Amino acid sequence: MKKKISFISVYFIDRRPKRNWSVPLDYRILKLKQVIFGWVNYFRVANMKKVTERIDNKLRSRIRVIIWKQWKVAKKHIKSLIQLGIPEEEAKGLTYCRKGYQYNGFSKVVQRAISNKRLKQRGVTSALEHYLKVHTVI
């Protein structure tokens, strides 16, 4: 059972939230929600609390990277980060660093700007919360 869960989680994390899939974020979140509900309902009898926690963390980080990439240009990065409550100097420092999308998406500045609370308001569901809701003990 453990092998199957880890295979599903690897497929789910690596294949689903691709950065180059050019669809609106709302549609992407809808598709991710469908997959989350489907596989959590399928494995609801398994003990996979830690797996769902790990998947939630990776999924939110990937969505932050996707949002960062959708902003495209430096001016949009700075403007959006300032609108989300990040000081201008921090926003410029992160925007003009020469690292890639992954580095910027995983940075603490982006995690503060696009917090879990904001993602939840946007519609990103937690696999852990859904798992705890539907988990049945045999």
Give a concise summary.
With 138 residues, the chain is an all-alpha fold. The protein has helices at residues 2-15, 25-42, 49-71, 74-83, 88-95, 101-106, 108-113, 116-122, 127-134.
Structure description:
With 138 residues, the protein is mostly helical. It is built from nine helices and no strands. The protein has helices spanning 2-15, 25-42, 49-71, 74-83, 88-95, 101-106, 108-113, 116-122, 127-134. The model has no long low-confidence stretch (mean pLDDT 85).
List strands and helices in order, with pairings.
Layout: H1 2-15, H2 25-42, H3 49-71, H4 74-83, H5 88-95, H6 101-106, H7 108-113, H8 116-122, H9 127-134
Q: Kindly report the average pLDDT value.
A: 85
Structural class: mainly alpha
Main beta-sheet strand count, sense and barrel state: none
Given the C-alpha coordinates, what overall shape results?
elongated
Radius of gyration: 16 Å
Number of strands: 0
Residue fraction in strands: under 5%
Separation of the first and last Cα atoms: 15 Å
**Secondary-structure element order, N to C:** HHHHHHHHH
What share of the residues lie within helices? over 70%
Please tally the helical runs, counting DSSP H or I stretches of 4 or more residues: 9
Low-pLDDT residue intervals, each spanning 5 or more residues: none
